[in-house]
Write a structure and sequence with these properties.
It is a single chain. The protein is mainly β. It has a domain of 68 residues: SH3 type barrels. The chain is built from no helices and ten strands. Strands 6-3-2-1-7-8 form a six-stranded antiparallel beta sheet, with no helix packed on it. A two-stranded antiparallel ribbon has the order 4-5.
Length: 102
């Protein structure tokens, strides 16, 4: 999977199309990601010793194919490519501006 925790992405499909956020969690086996502020659902929580009960809003997972990385240089969505740096280490780059991603 080409996405990592902390990447800034934009949603390209679904009811939250156009929303931006950072990736909170990557589920590689399911090919899904959790993006903050996207795909919000209400969850009923029982009270326990640490917290009170109630209705909480949580981010649900979405398919990785429905998000695209935001290019740090152009601030537009872009695809990801791979190349090797001087030390022979494989790095991710953006296709639009050839900018290296962390």
């Amino acid at each position: 999977m080409y996405l990592k925790v902390g990447d800034k992405v934009v949603v390209t499909a679904g009811s939250d199309k156009g929303k931006e956020g950072k990736i909170i969690k990557v589920l590689k086996a399911e090919n899904r990601v959790v993006v903050e502020g996207v795909n919000i659902a209400k969850k009923h929580v029982k009270p326990n010793g640490q917290q009170s009960g109630g209705i909480v809003e949580v981010e649900r997972k979405i398919d990785a194919s429905n998000v695209m990385i935001i290019d740090p240089k152009t601030k537009k969505r872009t695809r990801i490519g791979h190349t090797t740096d001087k030390n022979g280490k494989k790095v991710r780059i953006t296709k639009k501006s050839n900018e290296k991603l962390d």
